[in-house]
Design brief:
The complex is a heterodimer of chains A (about 170) and B (about 675). With about 170 residues, chain A is α+β, with helices and mostly antiparallel strands. Chain A has two domains: about 25-60; about 65-175, Immunoglobulin-like (Sandwich), CATH 2.60.40. Helices cover about 35% and strands about 40% of the residues of chain A. Chain A contains three helices and eight strands. Chain A has helices at about 1-15, 15-60, 100-105; strands spanning about 65-70, 80-85, 90-95, 110-115, 120-130, 135-150, 155-160, 170-174. In chain A, the strands form two sheets. In chain A, strands 4-1-7-8 form a four-stranded mixed sheet. Chain A has a four-stranded antiparallel sheet with strand order 3-2-5-6, with no helix packed on it. In chain A, β2 and β3 (about 90-95) form a beta hairpin. The termini of chain A are far apart. In chain B, about 30% of the residues are buried. Chain B has a domain at about 1-210: Serine Threonine Protein Phosphatase 5, Tetratricopeptide repeat (Alpha Horseshoe). Chain B is an all-alpha fold and about 675 residues long. The chains are: A alpha+beta (about 170), B mainly alpha (about 675). Chains A and B meet through α1, α2 and α3 of A and α1, α2, α3, α5 and α12 of B.
Chain lengths: ~170, ~675
């Protein structure tokens, strides 16, 4: 019977491990965690400044051009890859990971390209490969004439959805 | 003890039940960059998500009139998102401040209630139920429908933690049927009953929890825990039969199966049924050797054999246990050395872990970290997980800082190249631009004058403004002739004068008669001109911006870059220092746990050694006893044999004697018969 009690105590002790560990180094863990939070805050603030500097240096507002890719709501396509051509030159190519796809299916928007272009009209061709709900492979392509003016240009490429037309791609200027 | 255990269970599961509650679906986007930060957040790239959304919010608040921006429509959602991302990035302090700001704002009451709920959630997670309660008290009116149950559940948890059990029970009962927290509500209800000294109700609630059917792994694990807790409680109450019932409910493949098997064995042992105790223990002994329950069962199995007088088997099992313990002690020793050499931390940071979403869970399957199997319970603790995550975050911060430092060097080079290119070029361009600028200004003022004239002609008719150049030349010539004639009237006849008047009349007719057509045409021309003027303005603006961009591409960066570099370097020093301390802490925790397990195994080894000797003793004694018994039996048998033999001899003699007697009797009888026959014959005669 003594052994039983010992065994049960061992089980209970196992359960309460976290509490014991917390007692031993609680202050130390808490102190370090606060320091980690502080340094995270400092680095995030610093990164925001560095990103602004980078944007100012590399992508000045008069020539800045960014492309975003999103999936239409409730779109059951499994996007495999996308290729974007500007004036018949490949601008961006991307193969999607499961996590990226999941993020897009939840409404996240991928910034696929940031660069600089001249003002005026430019022809954009977007092609994508995907798997439909039934498992069949889909390959679609669509074109768009974008008008770059003096300010920065942001264009969203939305795959699928009711307004996407036959080509399955909708373009939206932001 | 029961209470303490349950409180710990409650605390552990409360975290799972809340399940982060971060943004899991994007709203209809009003700002594309908000969508980008959500894209990072959904992939758990919280650093990127926070820094990008922070930058976007900064730009929004810097607008002259932010309320006119479409992003304003979902600004509260975005603010929550920042708080959520910060929570997910374990920045509780900052997340709390951000959410508190919304709570104290003049936003819609439902939004403020939501903020209060989320802030209370943060405090509860940080084990500050008092603060959580204060915040929850600020909630007024209705909650948003999607958060109604969450708020009640959180409030109930906070009430349990602050000793308001009756209120907690009432709240939990009000949401008992809600599927969202299926199982968790029952479990917490059981805890609240226990805390309120209503043990029967507690057992009923936990018993119901222990029978719940679900496909959810979390709920099933909680179900196992409920059964295990009840079994322990029944053992404490001295009801092993009841305990047995609860132990057998625990799944054999669940996270608590080992403890349940061990407990079930002890229950059977306590009932004196060692054969039945051996069934779960023998099953357990084949499981993962690093598990504490398995190690204990390696001693329990021979113990049961011993109780069943199978000393030989007990001795063999103790021997096997000692061998295993010896091997494991060596392994633990090697693991302690490996952890101290920093190999564990190296694996935590390697690329494979970086790509793996469940890296912490999968760490135990890595060959390079055999020690992780021994620190599973440690790894399950919040403190250790938080420390490991912090260590990885610090490594990521360090890598980011190094990247930026290297990038800044490249940017400095880029700026120098730009400066070399633009500096000689810009003055020439500037000179040409000034000339063109002057010409453009002249043309623009001309256009404005024409525009003014056309507008004035709508009010006051001015045909002369619309005369062609040829007509204006003819008019000038006629005016000159007229002037000459008036100065020299003697040289010309009346006929000439009449001709001049007629020509003037023709011109007047021509200009006045086509006035409307000319005016319309002038408007059309003005419109065409405006198209060109617009193009000119565009080119002009573009040029001005390009010229400005060219200047700005290399000027004014020296000081900011120098300052940023200094800040990066200072942060690098900080990160390295904190990371070293965090690493030491993790290693110390791991080594402490490994040493505890090693000491435990060494104790087990000693116990096994003594038990082995005892088994041999008992086996020898039993053997001796058996032999003695055998000898005694033999002696007894011999005795019996001898007795049997002597008895047989006597019997034989008796038989022989009896035979002789019988013979004698027969002879006597024969003689008597003969004598009788003779007497009869004599009588007859």
């Amino acid at each position: 019977m003594r052994k039983i009690i010992l065994a049960l105590c061992a089980m209970l002790l196992l359960n309460s491990w976290s509490a014991i560990a917390a007692d031993v180094t609680k202050e130390q863990i808490k102190g370090l965690d606060e320091q980690v939070q502080d340094i995270k805050k400092d680095v995030i603030d610093l990164t925001a400044e560095l990103l602004q500097l980078e944007e100012k240096l590399l992508f000045p507002s008069n020539s800045q051009f960014a492309l975003f890719v999103s999936l239409a709501e409730a779109e059951n396509l499994r996007l495999d890859s996308i290729q974007i051509k500007l004036e018949n030159k490949v601008l961006a190519y991307h193969l999607y990971t499961f996590r990226e796809l999941e993020a897009m299916q939840n409404g996240g928007v991928q910034k696929i390209y940031t660069g600089n272009i001249r003002t005026g009209e430019h022809k954009l061709i977007v092609s994508y490969t995907a798997k439909a709900v039934g498992g069949s492979n889909t390959k679609q392509s669509g074109s768009y004439t974008l008008k770059k003016e003096v300010g920065p240009k942001f264009l969203e490429i939305k795959i699928g959805g009711p307004d996407a037309g036959e080509q399955g791609i909708e373009f939206k200027d932001w | 003890m029961f209470r303490i255990t349950l409180i710990i269970f409650c605390t552990l599961f409360a975290h799972n039940a809340i399940a982060e509650n971060t943004i899991d679906k994007a709203p209809e986007l009003k700002d594309i960059f908000y969508g980008e930060s959500l894209f990072y957040s959904f992939q758990d790239k919280n650093f990127d998500a926070i820094s990008k959304l922070d930058a976007e919010l900064g730009q929004f608040y810097n607008l002259d009139n932010p309320s006119l921006d479409p992003f304003n429509q979902q600004i509260s959602h975005a603010e929550f998102s920042v708080g959520s991302f910060e929570l997910a990035y374990r920045m509780h302090q900052r997340a709390g401040r951000a959410i508190k700001a919304i709570m104290e704002s003049s936003l819609n009451q439902k939004i403020r209630n939501e903020a209060a709920y989320r802030l209370a959630q943060i405090f509860y997670r940080k084990n500050q139920p008092g603060n959580a309660l204060d915040i929850l008290e600020n909630i007024q009116g209705d909650m948003a429908e999607e958060l109604r149950v969450d708020e009640i559940y959180l409030r109930a948890q906070v009430y349990i933690s602050t000793g308001r059990f009756v209120e907690a029970i009432d709240l939990l009962k009000s949401i008992e049927k809600e599927e969202k927290y299926e199982g968790f509500i029952l479990y917490n209800l059981g805890i609240a009953y226990i805390q309120n000294d209503e043990e029967k109700k507690a057992i009923l609630a936990l018993d119901e929890m222990g029978k719940i059917s679900s496909d959810d792994r979390g709920v099933l694990a909680l179900k196992d825990k409920a059964n295990l807790s009840l079994a322990n409680r029944m053992l404490e109450n001295g009801s092993p039969a009841q305990a047995k019932k609860y132990f057998t409910r625990v799944r054999l493949n669940g996270p608590f199966a080992d403890r349940a098997l061990l407990g079930l064995g002890w229950v059977n042992a306590s009932l004196g049924d060692y054969k039945k105790a051996l069934v779960p223990w023998r099953l357990l002994v084949k499981r993962e050797i690093t598990n504490e329950s398995v190690q204990e069962s390696m001693l329990a199995v021979p113990y049961a054999y011993g109780q069943l007088d199978y000393y030989g088997q007990a001795a063999l099992a103790y021997g096997r246990a000692m061998d295993s313990f010896g091997g494991e002690v060596d392994r633990l020793q090697a693991s302690i050395k490996s952890v101290r050499e920093g190999k564990f931390l190296n694996v935590v940071l390697d690329k494979q872990s970086e790509r793996d979403k469940n890296w912490l869970h999968n760490l135990r399957d890595r060959q390079e970290t055999p020690e992780t199997r021994y620190i599973l319970s440690l790894m399950a603790s919040n403190d250790f997980q938080q420390s490991l995550q912090n260590y990885r975050d610090l490594a990521e911060l360090g890598a980011r800082l190094s990247y930026w430092l290297a990038s800044l060097d490249v940017y400095v080079e880029l700026i120098n190249i730009r400066q070399k290119y633009y500096e000689p070029l810009l003055p020439v361009v500037e000179k040409q631009f000034k000339k063109l600028d002057a010409r453009i200004r002249v043309r623009l003022s001309q256009r404005d004058r024409l525009d003014q004239r056309l507008k004035s002609m709508v009010i006051a008719r001015r045909p002369d403004y619309l005369a062609t150049a040829q007509e204006r030349a003819a008019q000038d010539r006629l005016a000159k002739i007229d002037l000459y004639l008036s100065n020299n009237p003697q040289h010309y006849s009346a006929d000439v004068r009449a001709r001049i008047a007629r020509l003037k009349g023709v011109l007047h007719w021509q200009v006045n008669n086509s006035y409307h057509d000319r005016l319309t045409n002038a408007y059309k021309q003005m419109q065409t001109l405006d198209i060109y003027i617009n193009k000119l303005n565009q080119v002009y603006k573009s040029f001005v911006r390009t010229r400005q961009a060219a200047t700005q591409s290399y000027e004014g960066y020296d000081i900011p870059i120098r300052q940023l570099k200094t800040r990066i370097q200072a942060n690098q020093v900080k990160v390295n220092g904190i990371m070293a301390r965090q690493g030491q802490l993790i290693e110390a925790l791991a080594v402490n746990e490994l040493e505890r397990r090693r000491n435990q195994l060494e104790e087990y080894q000693i116990k096994a050694r003594f038990a082995l000797a005892e088994s041999y003793d008992r086996a020898t004694k039993k053997q001796q006893k058996d032999e003695e018994e055998k000898i005694l039996q033999q002696i007894e048998q011999n005795k019996i044999l001898k007795q049997t033999e002597s008895a047989e001899n006597i019997k034989t003699e008796q038989v022989e004697k009896a035979g002789q007697d019988e013979q004698e009797e027969e002879q006597e009888e024969e003689q008597e018969e003969e004598q009788e026959e003779e007497a009869e014959s004599e009588a007859v005669q």
